[in-house]
Design brief:
- The chain is of the alpha+beta class.
- The protein has helices at about 10-20, 75-90, 145-155, and strands at about 30, 35-40, 45, 50-55, 60-70, 95-105, 105-115, 120-125, 130-140, 155.
- It is built from three helices and ten strands, in the order αβββββαββββαβ.
- The N and C termini lie far apart (about 35 Å).
Length: about 180
């Protein structure tokens, strides 16, 4: 495991909303934060960790978040694969497809993770100073590859993300980002 911060705390919101059945929505909307834009079905709700989650009519969950990094990993492909493997371990799942590629000139990694209860599609995008995480989670019977592709393909980096030291402590002495990792929807 390397010393770079990995977003292990960010994969739970999508699954949590999927399990509790948050209010679904069918219409897709574009959100722009000033440093990225993405389309999601309906209106996203802010999770406790600062990521944003939307749920569609089939109760599939869409999650987008950003984790500031102190520095760019020396081996981006290894970092992205290790991050994806952490999701596999936490879900007690197995990784299906995996694809390392360049997303608008920056390292990116797509993978599918499955267990008996959920199918999860993950896209990790490593821009200098920030790791973007997009997740699509669904019940195996409701998994929609076209909806996942629309969500992933709509994501665009439009500016530089706020860069804060992820090891900085907040006013309560808690380590992490001093600012919220994404802007309000």
């Amino acid at each position: 495991m390397n010393r770079f911060r990995q977003p292990t705390h960010l994969f739970l919101p999508a699954l949590a909303l999927l399990l509790i059945g948050a209010a679904p929505s069918a219409s897709w909307r574009e959100f722009s934060s000033g440093w990225f834009k993405v389309q999601v079905p309906g209106t996203a709700k802010r999770s406790a960790n600062g990521s944003w989650v939307a749920v569609d009519a089939r109760k599939s969950a869409y999650n987008v978040s950003a984790t500031p990094l102190r520095e760019m990993p020396a081996a981006p492909q290894n970092y992205l694969e290790e991050t994806a493997e952490m999701f596999v371990d936490r879900l007690h799942g197995r990784m299906g497809h995996r694809n390392y590629f360049k997303f608008h000139g920056v390292p990116a990694f797509d993978c599918g993770i499955e267990n008996d209860q959920h199918h999860l599609g993950i896209r990790l995008i490593l821009q200098p100073g920030v790791l973007y995480l997009l997740q699509y989670a669904a019940d195996p019977k409701a998994f929609d590859p076209q909806a996942m592709a629309k969500f992933f393909d709509s994501f665009k980096i439009t500016g530089r993300a706020p860069r804060k030291d992820p090891a900085a402590k907040d006013e309560n002495g808690v380590e992490g980002n001093e600012e919220q990792p994404v802007q309000a929807w």
